[in-house]
Amino acid sequence: MKRDATQRILKDLDDTGAVIVQTAPGKVVTHRGGTITLPCRYHHEPEDVDPNHIRIKWTKVSDAFQFEDVFVELGRQQKAFGSYRGRVSLERAGPGDASVIIHNITLQDYGRYECEVTNDMEDDTGFVNLDLEGVVFPYYPPSGRYKLNYHQAEEVCRQQDAILASHAQLHKAWLEGLDWCNAGWLEDGSVQYPISQPRVQCGRKDSPPGVRNYGYRHKDDECYDAFCFTSNLNGRVYFLKRFKKVNYLEAVKACQRDDAVIAKVGQLYAAWKIQLLDRCEAGWVEDGSIRYPIVNPRTRCGGPEPGVRNLGFPDKKFRLYGVYCFRRNTDVQSTQAPKETITKPANSTRSI
What we know:
Blueprint: E1 18-23, E2 27-30, E3 36-38, E4 40-45, E5 54-61, E6 67-74, E7 77-80, E8 88-90, E9 100-102, E10 111-119, E11 122-132, E12 134-139, H1 150-159, E13 163-164, H2 167-175, E14 184-185, E15 190-195, E16 210-216, E17 225-231, E18 235-239, H3 248-257, E19 261-262, H4 265-273, E20 283-284, E21 290-294, E22 307-310, E23 322-328
Domain Ig-like: 18-131
GO molecular function, one term: hyaluronic acid binding
Subcellular location: Secreted, Extracellular space, Extracellular matrix
């Protein structure tokens, strides 16, 4: 039977060739674009086992208990799957090391991973949680609030260089002060919202602060806002200095002339949170909204709290503002893993 290794107490075993897997408790933390090792070690009882009979498999497990293959090795055969191709390799720090290295971390890599080691008919598993440094931000489209079903919420986050946030990410953002009085979709299909300052219009003034939870909602028929999550940028967001303000189309062209693109909402939030971008000037961003990032609150800059100010979605043709641009780094060295090995042992007939 599979057991969560973080909760297991090792016990005496017989001589049946049992496999014992151990993973680190808690979580490992990195950021988008980084490289991380997911730790996993194993041993056998007894220990004289042919290495060519050991199968190591890594799988990503979603909150909805959906499984995505990541990497598998049997003897000298190896295979990576899907978006993990070219980005994963085993650490090989010594006998019994099944740790996997993931290069060039993406937002979609966030989550829970299963390490499974199999010796013929015996197997055991452990779990590792991969967390990302980043920022959660609420989002609603130009059409207004409560207009997104779950699938549309997924898409708008993706369009703004982000993913739907998890409950853990939203809870952490609430602990850091996020206060938002509109319910939004999360990655697991639930609808929640964080309240730091209880008030009448946000679920009663006498209710305690916390993350309010509407539970799991119908993904196709019900509409809410979205809570998105983004992480480190492979580039820089900046306010384009110009002598005059511009409409939306002129803003897009101005960034292009500066060898950049107009910044997405997620990129502006990441620049505010991670790169500490502080600019008290309103500017266009990619979705047609007007925003500006404030790290150090001050008079005439939108209130006493830090954050990304949102002035809404004005007329793209006739309203004039500045613009926030994004320029991608061009001097970042590749962090790709070695190509996967697919050579087979001469005496191997077993599929991986």
